[in-house]
Amino acid sequence: MRLGVLLLVGLVSLAACRQRVPVSRADYRARIMALKLPDEFKPSAALYSARCSTCHGPRAVGSVRGPRLIHTMYHKKYHDDSVFARAVRLGVHGHHWGFGDMPAAGDLSDDDVADITIYIRWLQYQVGIR
Question: 83 is in which domain, residue-wise?
Fold first, then answer.
């Protein structure tokens, strides 16, 4: 009897999960681009735009030159803030995507890198990457 109840609960949970409608990439991108940027993030966003957007796209949505950072792969439990900082300092061998290597941008200060990372985390949070 217990096993039957557990199986029923599991099947109901699975059915509920399957009913979620995935957000298309275009909708996801549009939602990120439409976000109202709080004043506190404007300096970080400007720094990101000047130094990172050429490859990672506006608001970190990616481009033909580099991956989007607004992706669950870059969740802080997989790529914590120190990993972002190390990538900026040392560069990164292209290993997750087919974009090639990321060159180092070691001329950014530690504060600049921290500000950019906070901005990226804010963007991630806004679309549910928590």
Answer: 24-126
